[in-house]
Amino acid sequence: MNQGSMTPATIYAGHNMTEYLTAGRHWQGIPGIERTAKGRIYACWYSGGKTEEPGNVIVVEKSDDGESFTDGFLLVKHDDPMVRCFDPTMWIDPDGKLRLFWTQGYGFFDGRNGVWMAVSENPDDDIPTFSEPRRIANGLMMNKPTVTGKGEWLMPCAIWTSDFAKAGEDHADLAREVLANVYVSADKGETFAWRGGVDMPDRAFDEHMVVELQDGRIWMLVRTCHGIGQAFSSDGGVTWENADFSGHYGPNSRFFIRRLRSGRLLMVNHVNPTYSVSPRDWNVRDNLMAMLSEDDGKTWKGGLMLDTRAEVSYPDGVEDRDGNIYIVYDWQRYNAREILYAKFTEEDILEGRLVSEGSKLKVLVNKAQGDLSPLK
Q1: 121 CB contacts (<8 Å, ≥6 apart)?
Q2: Alpha-carbon distance 111 to 105, whole Å?
Q3: What 3-state DSSP class applies to 5?
Q4: Phi first, then psi: what are they for 165, rounded to 5°?
Q5: What is the mean pLDDT of residues 133-162?
Q6: How far is residue 38's CA from residue 23's CA, in Å, rounded to a whole number?
Q7: Per-residue buried b or exposed e for 195-209, using 16+ beta carbons within 10 Å of the residue's own CB
Q8: Of 40, 66, 297, 352, which sits with the fewest C-beta atoms within 10 Å of its C-beta?
Q9: Phi, psi of 153, deg, nearest 5
Q10: pTM for this model (two decimals)
């Protein structure tokens, strides 16, 4: 096994490496977002090279006014050019610590990969500091953890299907984890352990999320070739049942679901009645919409359209203490190369339009300016 993906990347704070700044990036996408108690917005995504390939890096920028973002705030890069850092997400834990997660793998996919974490205990400081990176799980994790009523942190990690695993090394010891998994921490992030997983029919890159339902069950939603699959666990993620289609069609892409402070569930997904139900069709990623559920996902109401354009994708979100919701996403990773966010409220979703003061759509976080010729 190549050890490159098992050794930590380096976190560069306040870097000036030209090829990874806005002016030098050829492509970018797959974003995440967080907001601190004092109002600072953090956005992360990945880039580096010409596409999703060895040598990818994690970009992290911040904004204290929600309008202008830094350029070169923080970079995560591995010394081995064959190791890529990708699929980042950020999460502020119940103690207010900002946790940055990303995946490392040798080549495009080495059959094992690994989820890494660095922690900042002072995310509102002028110059936040981060801990040394630590590998916490096998596989990938690009969506935020969920904290249950018992105080456990459920981490949605995955190892891609055996079709992908065959292209990498043979990791017989990981056979039980070639699933949409749940890793768990019961000690506030000191230790993490695999608990169980789901082999969802027609799953594709997984990118799953979990929420705790009012009856105590865990509801897992998983990206599939034709939309979103679902499964349920009554024992905290050890065993799963009823793995099947959720009823939410889509373009084989990432979605976002989260319980809000009000108790409602928020879902952001592509909503287009023309999507094919064929399990192998790749529909256009357009019509990114926010919806609400008051009955734990049985029915959905409202519908705030965030962006109708083609090639909008990969939403991630956070809610602040005042009930404002922030959803980040990318648009045209290889052409416009924009990272954007929307700010809105539950009232906006129910009305289907912006009615709340301060709500706004298509706020530009970053637009890469590197020469496009290397992509041709």
Answers
A1: 97, 129
A2: 8
A3: helix
A4: -60, -35
A5: 96
A6: 30
A7: bbbbebebbbbbbbb
A8: 352
A9: -95, 120
A10: 0.96
Query: Residue 154 and residue 296: Cα distance in Å, rounded?
Result: 18
Residue pair 141/101 in contact by the 8 Å Cβ criterion: yes
Alpha helices in the chain (DSSP H): 162-165, 346-351
Cα 221 from Cα 375, distance rounded (Å): 34
- Tell me the C-alpha distance between 147 and 93, whole Å: 9
327 and 318 Cβ atoms separated by less than 8 Å: no
Cα–Cα distance between 207 and 107 in angstroms, integer?
20
Q: Under a CB-based contact definition with an 8 Å cutoff, are residues 162 and 178 in contact?
A: yes
Helix, strand, or coil here: 209?
Answer: strand
Q: Which residue has the tokens 């996403």?
A: 329
What is the Cα Rg of the chain in Å?
19
For the residues of 150-191, what is the DSSP string, one character each? TSPEEE--B---HHHHTTS---GGGGGGSSEEEEEESSTTS-
**Residue 69: φ, ψ to 5°:** -115, 155
Q: What is the DSSP string of 55-104?
A: T-EEEEEEESSSS---SSSEEEE-SSTTEEEEEEEEEE-TTS-EEEEEEE
Distance of CA 170 to the CA centre of its chain: 27
What one-letter code names the amino acid at 115? V
Give pLDDT, residue 204: 87
CA distance 24 to 15: 13
Query: Is 70 exceeded by the pLDDT of residue 167?
Result: no
Exposure string for 308-320, b = 16+ CB within 10 A, e = fewer? eeebbbbbbbbbe
**pLDDT at residue 175, rounded to an integer:** 87
pLDDT digit string (tens) for 35-72?
A: 999 999 999 999 999 999 999 999 999 999 999 999 99
